[in-house]
Amino acid sequence: MENLDFCPIPYLILDRGLNVLDASDSGYGLLKRGESFLTILEEESSPKFARIIHKDLSGKMEVNLKKDSSFELVDLFYRFSDVQQRFHMAVITKDNEYEKVSQQMNGLFDRLGESNIVRKDTNHREVLASVSSLYLKLTNTSDWNREEVMDRVKEIEILLMKNVQ
User: Fold this and answer.
1) Domain span at residue 22?
2) What does pTM read for this prediction?
3) Which domain of life is it from (predicted)?
4) How high is the pLDDT of residue 13?
5) Where are the alpha helices (DSSP H) in the chain?
6) Contact present, 10 and 29 (Cβ < 8 Å)
7) Based on the domain organization, do 109 and 52 belong to the same domain?
8) Could you say which of 93, 126, 152 is where a domain stops?
Protein backbone atom coordinates (compact mmCIF):
# COMPACT_ATOMS: atom_id res chain seq x y z
CA MET A 1 0.00 0.00 0.00
CA GLU A 2 1.00 3.63 -0.49
CA ASN A 3 2.09 5.76 2.45
CA LEU A 4 -0.69 8.33 2.72
CA ASP A 5 0.01 9.48 6.29
CA PHE A 6 1.17 12.97 5.32
CA CYS A 7 -1.43 13.72 2.66
CA PRO A 8 -3.20 16.90 3.89
CA ILE A 9 -6.51 16.21 2.11
CA PRO A 10 -8.88 13.24 2.18
CA TYR A 11 -7.29 10.77 -0.23
CA LEU A 12 -8.84 7.35 -0.74
CA ILE A 13 -7.77 4.21 -2.53
CA LEU A 14 -10.78 2.13 -3.51
CA ASP A 15 -11.16 -1.29 -5.07
CA ARG A 16 -13.36 -1.89 -8.14
CA GLY A 17 -16.35 -2.32 -5.82
CA LEU A 18 -15.61 1.16 -4.39
CA ASN A 19 -14.61 -0.19 -0.96
CA VAL A 20 -11.80 1.58 0.94
CA LEU A 21 -8.46 -0.23 0.74
CA ASP A 22 -6.35 2.61 2.16
CA ALA A 23 -6.72 6.31 2.94
CA SER A 24 -4.98 9.37 4.33
CA ASP A 25 -5.74 10.26 7.95
CA SER A 26 -8.41 12.73 6.85
CA GLY A 27 -9.71 10.13 4.39
CA TYR A 28 -10.22 7.74 7.28
CA GLY A 29 -12.25 10.55 8.85
CA LEU A 30 -14.77 9.97 6.06
CA LEU A 31 -14.68 6.16 5.88
CA LYS A 32 -12.98 3.22 7.54
CA ARG A 33 -11.11 0.43 5.75
CA GLY A 34 -13.55 -1.92 4.01
CA GLU A 35 -16.48 0.52 3.95
CA SER A 36 -18.07 1.42 0.64
CA PHE A 37 -17.66 4.97 -0.64
CA LEU A 38 -21.30 4.85 -1.72
CA THR A 39 -22.43 4.91 1.93
CA ILE A 40 -21.35 8.54 2.39
CA LEU A 41 -22.86 9.86 -0.84
CA GLU A 42 -26.13 11.77 -0.67
CA GLU A 43 -28.93 9.78 -2.35
CA GLU A 44 -29.19 12.07 -5.41
CA SER A 45 -25.41 12.11 -5.91
CA SER A 46 -25.03 8.32 -5.72
CA PRO A 47 -26.44 7.37 -9.16
CA LYS A 48 -24.53 10.23 -10.82
CA PHE A 49 -21.32 9.08 -9.16
CA ALA A 50 -21.76 5.42 -10.10
CA ARG A 51 -22.62 6.28 -13.70
CA ILE A 52 -19.68 8.63 -14.22
CA ILE A 53 -16.93 6.76 -12.37
CA HIS A 54 -17.42 3.55 -14.35
CA LYS A 55 -17.78 5.39 -17.67
CA ASP A 56 -14.83 7.80 -17.34
CA LEU A 57 -11.90 6.18 -15.59
CA SER A 58 -10.39 9.54 -14.62
CA GLY A 59 -11.83 12.97 -14.07
CA LYS A 60 -13.52 15.33 -11.70
CA MET A 61 -17.11 15.51 -10.46
CA GLU A 62 -19.10 17.50 -7.95
CA VAL A 63 -21.14 15.52 -5.40
CA ASN A 64 -22.76 15.92 -2.00
CA LEU A 65 -21.38 13.85 0.88
CA LYS A 66 -23.41 13.06 3.99
CA LYS A 67 -22.10 15.01 6.95
CA ASP A 68 -23.84 14.53 10.29
CA SER A 69 -27.42 15.71 9.66
CA SER A 70 -26.61 17.76 6.54
CA PHE A 71 -24.52 17.52 3.38
CA GLU A 72 -21.18 18.83 2.19
CA LEU A 73 -20.49 19.77 -1.41
CA VAL A 74 -17.14 18.42 -2.64
CA ASP A 75 -15.13 17.99 -5.80
CA LEU A 76 -13.89 14.45 -6.39
CA PHE A 77 -10.75 14.00 -8.46
CA TYR A 78 -10.32 10.36 -9.39
CA ARG A 79 -8.26 8.05 -11.57
CA PHE A 80 -8.49 4.32 -12.10
CA SER A 81 -5.19 2.44 -12.23
CA ASP A 82 -5.39 -0.48 -14.68
CA VAL A 83 -2.20 -1.94 -13.27
CA GLN A 84 -3.34 -1.88 -9.64
CA GLN A 85 -7.05 -2.27 -10.43
CA ARG A 86 -7.80 0.52 -7.93
CA PHE A 87 -9.41 3.93 -7.89
CA HIS A 88 -7.34 6.78 -6.45
CA MET A 89 -9.56 9.60 -5.23
CA ALA A 90 -8.93 13.05 -3.73
CA VAL A 91 -11.81 14.82 -1.99
CA ILE A 92 -11.75 18.62 -1.98
CA THR A 93 -14.40 20.44 0.05
CA LYS A 94 -16.22 23.39 -1.46
CA ASP A 95 -17.07 25.07 1.85
CA ASN A 96 -14.76 27.99 1.03
CA GLU A 97 -16.61 28.67 -2.24
CA TYR A 98 -19.93 28.56 -0.41
CA GLU A 99 -18.59 30.95 2.24
CA LYS A 100 -17.41 33.32 -0.50
CA VAL A 101 -20.86 33.40 -2.11
CA SER A 102 -22.49 33.83 1.30
CA GLN A 103 -20.24 36.84 2.01
CA GLN A 104 -21.17 38.36 -1.35
CA MET A 105 -24.85 37.90 -0.54
CA ASN A 106 -24.42 39.53 2.87
CA GLY A 107 -22.67 42.44 1.15
CA LEU A 108 -25.65 42.86 -1.16
CA PHE A 109 -27.99 42.90 1.84
CA ASP A 110 -25.81 45.51 3.55
CA ARG A 111 -25.88 47.61 0.40
CA LEU A 112 -29.67 47.37 0.29
CA GLY A 113 -29.85 48.63 3.84
CA GLU A 114 -27.72 51.72 3.19
CA SER A 115 -29.73 54.90 3.34
CA ASN A 116 -27.59 56.73 0.75
CA ILE A 117 -28.62 54.59 -2.22
CA VAL A 118 -31.30 55.94 -4.51
CA ARG A 119 -34.20 53.57 -4.99
CA LYS A 120 -36.14 53.49 -8.24
CA ASP A 121 -39.06 51.87 -6.44
CA THR A 122 -40.48 53.50 -3.32
CA ASN A 123 -41.75 50.12 -2.08
CA HIS A 124 -38.48 48.22 -1.71
CA ARG A 125 -39.92 45.68 0.74
CA GLU A 126 -41.00 43.50 -2.19
CA VAL A 127 -37.48 43.62 -3.60
CA LEU A 128 -36.00 42.71 -0.23
CA ALA A 129 -38.53 39.86 0.13
CA SER A 130 -37.56 38.53 -3.32
CA VAL A 131 -33.86 38.76 -2.53
CA SER A 132 -34.44 37.08 0.84
CA SER A 133 -36.37 34.26 -0.84
CA LEU A 134 -33.56 33.65 -3.31
CA TYR A 135 -31.01 33.79 -0.50
CA LEU A 136 -32.91 31.17 1.51
CA LYS A 137 -32.90 28.86 -1.53
CA LEU A 138 -29.18 29.48 -1.86
CA THR A 139 -28.43 28.60 1.74
CA ASN A 140 -30.10 25.19 1.48
CA THR A 141 -26.84 23.32 0.96
CA SER A 142 -28.47 19.95 0.32
CA ASP A 143 -29.54 20.88 -3.18
CA TRP A 144 -27.11 23.43 -4.60
CA ASN A 145 -24.23 23.17 -6.99
CA ARG A 146 -21.90 25.76 -8.47
CA GLU A 147 -24.12 26.52 -11.49
CA GLU A 148 -27.22 26.92 -9.34
CA VAL A 149 -25.38 29.22 -6.94
CA MET A 150 -24.12 31.44 -9.74
CA ASP A 151 -27.60 31.51 -11.32
CA ARG A 152 -29.15 32.57 -8.00
CA VAL A 153 -26.51 35.26 -7.45
CA LYS A 154 -27.12 36.59 -10.99
CA GLU A 155 -30.88 36.63 -10.36
CA ILE A 156 -30.32 38.63 -7.19
CA GLU A 157 -27.94 41.05 -8.92
CA ILE A 158 -30.43 41.59 -11.77
CA LEU A 159 -33.25 42.15 -9.28
CA LEU A 160 -31.16 44.67 -7.37
CA MET A 161 -30.05 46.48 -10.56
CA LYS A 162 -33.68 46.87 -11.63
CA ASN A 163 -34.71 48.33 -8.28
CA VAL A 164 -31.65 50.15 -6.99
CA GLN A 165 -29.56 52.83 -8.76
Assistant:
1) 11-93
2) 0.59
3) Bacteria
4) 93
5) 25-30, 45-55, 95-113, 125-139, 146-163
6) yes
7) no
8) 93
- Amino acid (one-letter) located at 84: Q
For helices 95-113 and 146-163, the axis angle rounded to 10 degrees is: 10
| Separation CA 131–CA 78 (nearest Å) | 38
Mean pLDDT by 10 residues, the chain (165 residues): 74 91 88 89 86 88 84 89 92 74 70 57 60 64 59 71 62
Cβ neighbours for 97, distance < 8 A, ≥ 6 positions apart? 146, 149
Whether residues 106 and 86 fall in one domain: no
Same domain, 80 and 15: yes
Burial of residue 111 (CB within 10 Å: 0-12, 13-18, 19+) is exposed
Q: How many domains would you assign to the chain?
A: 2
What pLDDT score does 5 carry? 73
What's residue 60's pLDDT? Answer: 92
Claim to verify: residue 111 and residue 84 sit in the same structural domain: no
